[in-house]
Amino acid sequence: MITNFKRLLGQSNSCDTCSQHIESGGAELSQQHYLITVAGNPNTGKSTLFNGLTGLKQHVGNWPGKTVMRAEGGFRYGTENYKIVDLPGTYSLLAGSVEEEIARDFILFEDPDAVIVVMDATAVERNLNLTLQILEITDHVVVALNLMDEARRKGITIDHKGLSKELGVPVIPTVARTGEGIGYLMQAVSDLVEGRIQTNPRRIQLDHVLEEMVNELVYEIKKSFPHLKNSRWIALRLLDGDSSIYKAFETGEIEDLFKKVHPYDLKSTAENPA
Amino acid sequence: MHHKDYMKGLSILQKARALREALSDDFRDILVEGIYTESERIAGSVSHFEDGERKNWDIKIDRIVTHPLWGLPLMFLGLAVVFWVTIVGANYPSQFLATLLFSIGDYGARLFEWLHMPWWITGFIWHGVYKGLAWVTSVMLPPMMIFFPIFTILEDLGYLPRVAFNTDWLFKKVGAHGKQALTMTMGFGCNAAGVISARIIESPREKLIAILTNNFVPCNGRFPTLIMLGIVFFASTSPSSFSSIIAAGAVVGSVLVGIIFTLIVSWLLTKTILKGEASAFTLELPPYRRPSIMRVVYTSIIDRTIFVLRRAIIMAAPAGGAIWLMANIHIGNESLVKIVSDFLTPLGTAIGLDGVILLAYIIAIPANEIVVPTIIMGYLGVGAMTDLNSLSELRHLLVDQAGWTLLTASCLMLFAVLHNPCSTTILTIWKETRSRKWTLISAFMPLLIAFIVTFIVAQLWRLLQSGI
């Protein structure tokens, strides 16, 4: 089911759920835009949110070399254009499956300007596992606490402000099916990509010995590859013996992977106009 | 530039490898557990359940049935109760059905004699094919009518994911995927279904382990065999009040043996031909549901009982005919059954069984359901016995005529749990793996293990006996 938020929100004249209208599919992808992505467990309403934001203007294909579906689309919010990629639904990012590898590599190497993590409000604990793992990789996270209607029906209330404080990133309650809260969600995304808000994501605490090991590796990585972001996360993966990360170091591809910039990125094109 | 990167990368890898040396093996577990503990803490502090009544009820039950300490023993106790109910309940209907069906057979044979049919037509039809069918029906139908509805209710309630939850850590310990606990649980229903369900495991290595070891848990087709052996053997050797409990215990024991071998073989595979580390995963415990009566009836009667019985009957009719022919075709002075089973006897005796049992297993390759009926027909064909119409007479036949001992019954139960998968399962493994090598391994590895284990048990048993 595709819900077009623009139509949905546009029809009610008193649109108090959003400060600015979303123009689904309004963005031409050749224009400058921000790159954002939607991640989450399966069946959290991830794709409903994606469809709602992009409308029918989507490109659907496969991830390069994989048999997993990839959908991307564009929309306009406020004065900015956004390109949005729907990641496969996963329970973790430990790269145990093709889907997990795709989701992880995208967040890690494409370095999106914002990751919308869609959480199922009726199963917060399970959904937090993935959220915390994403927070290990990137700072650019906004959480959409979705399926709020189902949670209400089941008599579950979530202190979203408390959750936001715990996670160190914005948490917006939403019902993607009806469009409830989507305006606030996009406002938070916009604030994040424009640098109006700073996040302070929670990281997993390790014991002293482990923490020292990680720091030692982080120091080495930062020394040799100053461009690399998420050096802490890479250090953790190296300690865990992640074969894909080992391979990237062995072949020297690691920096290439991170150096990659999306061609129409606002920031990068602004810095070196072609 | 590239070369420099390359060198820098290598020096970091060296460092990482050195640090990993000093790291404990369960680093990943520590990481994953850190994330899970944190999730649990945060979720607990921000969520509030209003009408907690129902929700709490679910959680309270889960706290008990998935308790780290007594979750597993509770599971086996529950299983024992299910088997006990099956064994106690199946006894009388089984006797009734046997009496009824065999008397029909008698009338049929007499009718044929009255019509002056040649003796071999009467024999082939009534003493071969019909007797095979009557045996399968009276021996298998009553336990199935009790066991399958209970099994289906447990399934419908949502208990099976809890079984997986209780056992997944065991699989991780042996280096396999925790989800193998789920595919194993599916195998209790049907091994072919269990093999297909291994699709939920993404990593090819762990999927193969799950496929290759699925056969070690007895499926619905083998449960009746185990239950019947339990009834006939373990139930009647002891005083009646304890007998059914002991019989149930014997069946639970063989299930336990199956699970233990699943773990041992998984471990051996991860240490030899399928090396690697276990991946982490999330197991969702679905809420408990009230089983729908119509669905339970439909699934247990149509999908399970009729399906298994139909397969057994289709296989039992030709098997009954075949064994009757073998018993009545004589080469020299000996019947074919006697010649073949005598030939197999040395091998059979070495593993605690006998030639007739091995012959039955060869005839029963297409469907494990008919092993015991075939064994019985093999014995009946050899000796000139009158019809059996109760389980105690069956016991009389096996113990007094065929010379079965507790060792024979134990080895047969072990063999039934461990031996090669049925042809349907082998075909499914071929379809899932598309590999001749893995299909052959999946067929012969369990068979080899079954021979080795029963051989060791039989030899030790005899050694201990001669020692006393």
Furnish the topology, listing elements before pairings.
The complex is a heterodimer of chains A (274) and B (468).
Chain A: H1 5-11, E1 22-24, E2 34-40, H2 46-54, E3 58-62, E4 69-77, E5 80-86, H3 98-110, E6 114-120, H4 124-137, E7 141-146, H5 148-153, E8 156-158, H6 160-167, E9 171-173, H7 182-193, H8 208-224, H9 231-240, H10 243-250, H11 253-259, H12 266-271
Parallel strand pairs in A: 2-5, 2-6, 6-7, 7-9
Antiparallel strand pairs in A: 1-4, 3-4, 4-5
Helix pairs in contact in A: 8-9, 10-11
Chain B: H1 2-22, H2 27-46, E1 47-49, H3 52-65, H4 71-114, H5 119-157, H6 159-173, H7 180-189, H8 191-197, H9 204-213, H10 223-237, H11 240-271, H12 293-328, E2 330-331, E3 334-335, H13 336-350, H14 355-363, H15 371-382, H16 391-401, H17 406-418, H18 423-433, H19 436-467
Q: What's the short story on this structure?
A:
Chain A has 274 residues and is α/β, with parallel strands linked by helices. Helix content of chain A is 43%, strand content 18%. In chain A, strands 1, 2, 3, 4, 5, 6, 7 and 9 form an eight-stranded mixed sheet that branches.
Output the keywords.
heterodimer; A: 274 residues; alpha/beta; Rossmann fold; 2 domains; 8-stranded mixed β-sheet; 12 helices; 9 strands; globular; B: 468 residues; mainly alpha; two-stranded antiparallel ribbon; 19 helices; 1% strand
Task: Tell me about this structure.
The complex is a heterodimer of chains A (274) and B (468). Chain A has helices at 5-11, 46-54, 98-110, 124-137, 148-153, 160-167, 182-193, 208-224, 231-240, 243-250, 253-259, 266-271; strands at 22-24, 34-40, 58-62, 69-77, 80-86, 114-120, 141-146, 156-158, 171-173. Chain A is an alpha/beta fold and 274 residues long. Chain A folds into two domains: 5-193, 3-Layer(aba) Sandwich (Rossmann fold), CATH 3.40.50; 208-271. In chain A, strands 1, 2, 3, 4, 5, 6, 7 and 9 form an eight-stranded mixed sheet that branches. The longest helix of chain A is centred in the last third of the chain and has 17 residues, at 208-224. Chain B has 468 residues and is an all-alpha fold. Chain B has one domain. Chain B is built from 19 helices and three strands. Chain B has helices spanning 2-22, 27-46, 52-65, 71-114, 119-157, 159-173, 180-189, 191-197, 204-213, 223-237, 240-271, 293-328, 336-350, 355-363, 371-382, 391-401, 406-418, 423-433, 436-467; strands at 47-49, 330-331, 334-335. Chain B has a two-stranded antiparallel ribbon with strand order 2-3. In chain B, a hairpin with a 2-residue loop joins strand 2 and strand 3. Chain B is globular and about 95 Å long. The chains are: A alpha/beta (274), B mainly alpha (468). At the A-B interface, helix 4, strand 8, helix 6, helix 8 and helix 9 of A face helix 1, helix 2 and strand 1 of B.
